[in-house]
Design a protein that fits this description.
The protein has a domain of 231 residues: Rossmann fold (3-Layer(aba) Sandwich), CATH 3.40.50.1110. Helix content is 50%, strand content 10%. The strands form 2 sheets. A 5-stranded parallel sheet has the order 2-1-3-6-7, with helices on both faces. The chain has a two-stranded antiparallel sheet with strand order 4-5.
């Protein structure tokens, strides 16, 4: 009885912090589980703007900047580890089918890259990579009480689960995936409590890069935290860490990879070569079908759609064949004709990245401001 009462109380605490936008549980690899939380997707009622795409969208579009710029919208961060355009469509269709049309965002901001548009790793159709791990598909198939993901020829689709299968998934979710919610909620409420008691929060922008910001008591990070604590105080440092722990971010606080090592690693990776050598013209049918679905979804719900070609590290960009990258951009512009499209692929220098696509905090700030200016200009133009 005590365990059940504690579990219920922590669950209420988690829902409250999620509804108020204070806690975003689940780290990289499990971030799509947030899609299964009505408290993050459907509640409270009102206008919504979804920031959806792969993990670089989740890291490079900053919640606080978008909240300040669009205060009349609930900002829904929906970065998907290893996400693709196919995954974006699954997310939007899941929101529509499970939560209803009222939960469909009024504004849909989609971040894309070559890998995303090419759907690598491919999880559907003739080019399907059997056994390819999909955090989104696993989250839905294992834990959603409502839907499963089924691969089709040019895309993936959702289909209903049986009542028995749905209940099994619900129980599996309750048994296995509540603890991250509880920890994120406790961190958010403790941070707020310390603030209410008059304690300041140290500026995370002054933090030197950490190898693991969620578990910083390791050999490399303890000296960094100790120095930061000496400069800012114990409680302000604790509040800084608690705010990061309850946020949806991970890579932007990490130490950037050595450029020489990154260049060599990208050159040797067979997966990277598949992306760099992808021929958009050979798969124009797939791209046009999926982007057409995206446009049709937005039109059906009266949503305003914005597509952003996300920044990529110059170290990574050098491996693309110039004509194929231009063919990729041409295919996007042609297929998205009439949809506001912002190309930021070469906007940031190499030292603004942790790896090939994820920006450090200062880079994410620049990306966020450019996207906000772009959307604001488009919205003003409509008005």
């Amino acid at each position: 009885m005590v365990y059940g009462s504690l579990h219920w109380a922590l669950g209420r605490l988690a829902v409250g912090s999620e509804v108020q936008g204070k806690a975003y549980p689940y780290l990289a690899g499990e971030d799509p589980i947030r899609l299964l939380l009505p408290s993050l997707v459907r509640e409270p009622p009102g206008r919504r703007m979804i920031l959806v795409g792969a993990s670089e969208t989740g890291e490079n579009m900053l919640l606080d900047r978008f909240r300040a710029a669009f205060p009349d919208h609930r900002i829904v961060p929906s970065g998907i580890s290893t996400g693709t355009v196919d995954d974006v469509l699954v997310v939007l269709n899941y929101i529509e089918e499970v939560y209803g049309s009222a939960a469909v965002p009024e504004v849909i901001v989609v971040g894309v890259t070559v890998r995303m548009v090419g759907n690598f790793p491919r999880r559907f159709g003739p080019g399907r990579l059997v056994g390819a791990y999909s955090p989104l598909f696993n989250a839905i198939n294992d834990y959603s009480p409502h839907r499963r993901v089924v691969p089709d020829r040019l895309r993936s689709r959702l289909e209903p689960k049986s009542r028995l299968e749905g209940e099994r998934s619900r129980l599996r979710f309750l048994a296995r995936k509540q603890q991250p919610r509880f920890r994120a909620a406790l961190a958010a409420w403790l941070d707020e409590g310390l603030g209410a008691a008059g304690w300041e929060r140290a500026d995370v922008g002054e933090l030197e890069f950490l190898d693991d910001v969620w578990n910083p008591l390791n050999w490399n990070d303890v000296p960094v935290l100790a120095a930061f604590t000496r400069d800012h105080g114990v409680v302000p440092t604790l509040r800084m860490w608690l705010s990061v722990y309850g946020s949806p971010y991970q890579t932007q606080y990490m130490r950037p990879l050595d450029p020489a090592w990154l260049a060599e690693d990208l050159a040797q990776q067979s997966f990277s070569r598949v992306v760099y050598e992808w021929d958009p013209g050979a798969e124009a049918e797939m791209v046009q079908a999926q982007l057409g679905d995206l446009r049709e979804f937005a039109a059906r719900h009266g949503s305003r759609l914005y597509v952003v070609n996300m920044p990529e590290n110059p170290i990574s960009l050098q491996y693309y064949e110039a004509e194929r990258y231009e063919a990729y951009l041409d295919l996007l512009r042609t297929t998205l004709s009439g949809v506001p499209f912002l190309d930021l692929h070469d906007r940031l220098p190499a030292d603004a990245f942790v790896d090939e696509t994820h920006a450090v905090l200062s880079g994410a700030e620049q990306v966020s401001e450019e996207i906000i200016r772009f959307i604001t200009a488009e919205e003003d133009g409509e008005g």
